[in-house]
Amino acid sequence: MRILYEHLEPEFPVNWRYTRFREHRLEAYWHFHPEYELTYIMHGTGTRLAGNSVEEYRPGDLALFGPDLPHTYVTTPESEPIEAIVVHFARDFLGPEFFGSPVFGNVRRMLDDALRGIRFPGALPPLEDLSRLAPPERTVELLRILVTLSREPYILLATGRSPSVLHQGAAVRIQAMMKAIHSGYTARLTLEDIAAAAHMHASAASRLFARSTGFTVSHYVNLVRVNRACQLLRDTDRSVSTVAADSGFANLSNFNRRFRELKRMSPREYRANFRVELEAADVTDLGDVRRHRAGGRRNRALRQSEQGGRPVVDETGEVGVHGRP
């Protein structure tokens, strides 16, 4: 995995970039740049990294990364091709002090929070429409989208300092270790196996990985496996023991322990919560269920915001409110 500076040129005649792409799969490419990045996943599943945040992504995932925040998306081996819309813009793309105006206070605070990375659990912005507009209307529509998102509840992703920037040699080794993890996490995977992919001794590889990503190797492997288990618990009827095995856990007790550590509930509770919401929504299509779940989270947060301000949820699940006088 590389964590490298990426230079992006604006698209003339506008001074920001709109990209829609489709790829068979995405390998780890941990990079950063001085622009903000708004990424909307239309198709595909996998793992999203932002600073020291590691989460599952799936269709409908919408995230905003601030300047110089390392981030990447990695597809799962069995994922359908990934299709995404990515918008890059500088904070001053409408002028140096544009978002300093009090009328755009919510946008300013959102952009500040994006330095840690943001996930919007219930927002469905019309990003596809941007490509069909003329440059002036396209830029006005991007501003409208940012204003709308600033009023939505969102979840902060990263905590603490961002991982350090790597020189090219170390970056190649990290990339090799990441590739070994994402391609082999469903089977027995040892630190020696991962280190061998980078042509390193286990102890040296462990130190390099932790220094560069903010995670120990074992913790990162558990995150990837638990994220995969969540997908299987939602989207299949496999038994919990089968889900554990298919996610790379050698025994059920270890799976239950790791799952509870990371998700704060057991695998059975996770599946039961999903099915309760399915029954409450009275729908059978999984896409409809996910939209219902996102809408429910948004409505609960918005009820809190009516009492003053815009709700913001950090990665621990705690809800705060921004925008109060």
UniProtKB/TrEMBL annotation:
Stretch list, region Disordered: 292-325
Pfam families assigned: AraC_binding, HTH_18
Keyword Cytoplasm: yes
Gene3D superfamilies per record: Homeodomain-like, Jelly Rolls
Cleavable signal peptide: none
Domain HTH araC/xylS-type: 175-273
Tagged with keyword Translocase: no
GO MF, one annotated term: DNA-binding transcription factor activity
Keywords: Activator, Cytoplasm, DNA-binding, Transcription, Transcription regulation
Compositional bias (Basic residues): 292-301
Protein name in UniProt: HTH araC/xylS-type domain-containing protein
